[in-house]
Specification:
single chain; mainly beta; Immunoglobulin-like; 4-stranded antiparallel sheet; 9% helix; elongated; Lipoprotein
């Protein structure tokens, strides 16, 4: 058995090359670096073909008209994101006192998919708030929300 192991070991050593001989230095061919051809097509935003009147803005202005005499006592109006769980400064676009003279004002929404809600809160806590919803109307050139 020992002889068999020795024979196999010697065969492996001689099969792998082993031994010396004269070593000749291996010369490496110089690396060839090709520069890519200049790209004549524009990339990024410059590649877009956009009409000159398009301004890339997604925000738009909404004019709110709250009818006079909608409320006949002191109240407060919040206009906030429709899906917001809480009514606070982070989710509201308008927070303003409201009187029987009504209200007319404008505010900016960040994009056309935005839905908003208005809640009119009364200082008299025995009255329930009045709630309204509004969404962008693409058929209108100016976005107007009439609350009456």
């Amino acid at each position: 058995m020992k002889q068999l192991i020795c024979l196999v070991s010697v065969s492996l050593i001689t099969a792998c090359g082993g031994g010396g001989g004269s070593e000749q230095p291996v010369s490496k061919a110089p690396a060839v670096v090709e520069t890519p051809p200049a790209d004549t097509q524009e990339q990024g935003v410059a590649a877009l073909n956009v009409p000159t009147q398009f301004d890339f803005k997604t925000d738009f202005t909404v004019t709110v008209n709250v009818a006079a005499n909608l409320v006949n006592e002191r109240a407060f109006i919040n206009i906030c994101e429709a899906d917001a769980a809480l009514t606070n400064a982070d989710t509201c676009f308008v927070r303003s006192p409201l009187t029987d003279n009504g209200l007319e004002m404008s505010f900016t929404l960040p994009h056309q998919g935005q839905k908003v809600k208005a809640s009119i809160w009364f200082y008299d806590t025995s009255r329930a708030p009045l709630n309204y919803e509004w969404q962008f109307n693409s058929s209108q050139s100016e976005q107007v929300w009439r609350i009456n």
